[in-house]
Amino acid sequence: MKKTLFATLLLTSSIFATVNVATTYNYLGEVTKAIGGDLVKVDVLANPKLDPHFITPKPSLIGKLRREDLLIINGGQLEIGWLPPLLKRANNSKIDNGGRGFLDASGAVTLIDKPVNVSRAYGDVHPDGNPHYALSIDNITPIAELISMKLSQIDPANGAKYSANFKTFKSNIERLKSKLAPIIKGCQGKKVIQYHELFNYALDAFGAEKVSNIEPLPGISPSSKHTLELINIMKSQKIDTILQDVYHEKRTAKFIANKTGATIKIIPHDVGATNTANTIEEFYTEVATKICQ
Fold first, then answer.
1. Looking at residues 97-113, what average pLDDT do you find?
2. Are 122 and 218 in a shared domain?
3. Edge-to-edge strand order for the sheet containing 40-44?
């Protein structure tokens, strides 16, 4: 009787076992929830409405990291300014870089804009390449597959479930891409100005062209001289779209728009960055619609 009860308790605990996962950004959290379902508990470390380069390392985040089985990061050194101190203080060997419970999602994609030289003279450049790859819908499926494989490694007993959930996720993304295709078609040859080197992956996927940035160099605030140069470029090339993220100052974009008649498009950089992009589907729909229409 006791043996039977003990075996039942073990089986029950196995069925309802949860993998504790931390993701650095919200889009990774949403993908992990889609793949893991009720088998995972996800903590997202960064607020999606804030600059992803600079997240305040709150003590509460250390407590979360201490109990996680898996940490999924964006990589491309996007977290380099805030994550390492948190990991050091959390002292959880499972999720340290190189540990069994550590996953760098950038391993699923090919990074672009890799600098030839790394120097402060070129602004806040990322040596591994542009880390904002999640802005392209083409990259989200390989990221999801990598997460599915990692969850299966951490929790092999439920590998079949993770694999099945990935197939469903992949099908949903393919349907979304078909739905967005007519919208994206309007981007072919379109020229835009953006504030930061943020939307390059989406622009490449859409066939649009980034002519310049409001930042003269990554992480460097725009000067009056550079702003006037942008105005002249936009007038001469008849560029009527400025892509603005939610976390940089908007004063400069408004000034340029006032001088050129251009339209400012506020575009999310992450799921939840705007109030109308709270799911993966809403996020990619908003990115495509605002850039291409």
1. 96
2. no
3. 40-44, 19-23, 70-73, 102-104
Single-letter amino acid, residue 21: V
The answer for residues whose C-beta is within 8 angstroms of residue 43's C-beta and 6 or more apart is: 20, 21, 22, 23, 29, 64, 68
For tokens 């009527």, the residue is 240
- How far is the C-alpha of 171 from the C-alpha of 150, rounded, in Å? 20
Q: CB of 144 within 8 A of CB of 166?
A: yes
Per-residue confidence (pLDDT) for residue 16, from 0 to 100: 53
Structural domain includes residue 4: no
In this structure, the answer to whether residues 78 and 196 fall within a common structural domain is: no
Q: Domain residues for 87?
A: 10-177
Look at residue 96 and tell me if it is in a domain. yes
Could you give the CA distance from residue 51 to residue 281 in angstroms, rounded to a whole number? 22
Residues 25 and 121 in one domain: yes
Tokens of 242: 């400025």
Q: Is the pLDDT of residue 123 over 80?
A: no
- pLDDT 10s digits, 20-73: 999 999 999 999 999 999 999 999 999 999 999 999 888 999 999 999 999 999
Phi, psi dihedral angles at 246 (to 5 degrees):
-85, -15
Q: What percent of the chain has pLDDT over 70?
A: 91
Partners of 102 in the β-ladder: 71
Q: Is the pLDDT of residue 140 over 50?
A: yes
Average pLDDT along the chain: 92
Take residue 82 and report the two structure tokens written for it: 């805030």
Count of CB atoms situated within 10 Å of the CB of 96: 15
